Amino acid sequence: WEGELRHFTKDGREVIIAARKQLIRGADGVDRVLETNRDITESKRAEEELQQTKRHAEDVAVQLRSTIENMTERLYVCDSKGHPLLANAAFRRTYPGTDAPEYPRTFAEHWEAFDIAGNPVPIEDWPIGLALRGQTVRGAEFRLRSKLTGKEMIGSYNASPVFDSQGKVTMALFTSQDIAESKLAEEQLQK
């Protein structure tokens, strides 16, 4: 027989023992029980703590995924080369096809950017390009046009770099909000 037993010491502490009992026949023909016990209390407690930590991390991951998916602001996260890592539901709804397997490898392969006046903006000056170079961008207004569909949109864009412990950019976070209606109202007021 082999198993775990819980015992209490004289001072009331609980200890967990890995016990093993084995039937052994002696040279005299008499059967005897050989019992070995090993205190595994600390390793069991460490295992339980690890399981609790794992469950907590899983709960936090679910909460984080749910938060990201339910944000009204569009979120796009890419690696240091601009390749997509994550796009939330608002981003996927606004930029159709971005969750498809054939989605281009970088945001720039799918979109062209223009300033509000309609002048082309080089990729390195896009908020995501600036963030990949370590800069933070807030409230930059651009027009984007899909290279695949021709659809155009006006948005306010934010981007932030994510640095590793050595200060190297490892990811970039990109968020956007549709400002087409406010820009249209602004143009009408100016007329």
Elements, N to C (H/E): EEEHEEHEHEEEH
Distance between the termini: 91 Å
Largest sheet: 6 strands, antiparallel
pLDDT below 50 for ≥5 consecutive residues: which ranges? none
Structural class: alpha+beta
Q: Helical content, roughly?
A: 25-40%
User: How many whole angstroms does the radius of gyration measure?
Assistant: 30 Å
Shape: rod-shaped
Strand order of the largest sheet: 5-4-9-8-7-6
Residue-averaged pLDDT: 89
Strand % is 35-45%
Give a count of the beta strands, DSSP E runs of length 2 or more: 9
Number of helices: 4
Summed up:
The protein is of the alpha+beta class. It is 28% helix and 39% strand.
Describe this structure in words.
The chain has 4 helices and 9 strands; from the N terminus they run E-E-E-H-E-E-H-E-H-E-E-E-H. The strands form 2 sheets. A 6-stranded antiparallel sheet has the order 5-4-9-8-7-6. The protein has a 3-stranded antiparallel sheet with strand order 1-2-3, covered by helices on one side. It is rod-shaped and about 110 Å long. The relative contact order is 0.10. By secondary structure, it is α+β, with helices and mostly antiparallel strands. It starts with a strand and ends with a helix. Strand 2 (14-25) and strand 3 form a beta hairpin. The protein has helices spanning 41-70, 89-94, 127-132, 180-190, and strands at residues 2-8, 14-25, 31-39, 74-79, 84-87, 111-114, 137-146, 152-163, 169-178.
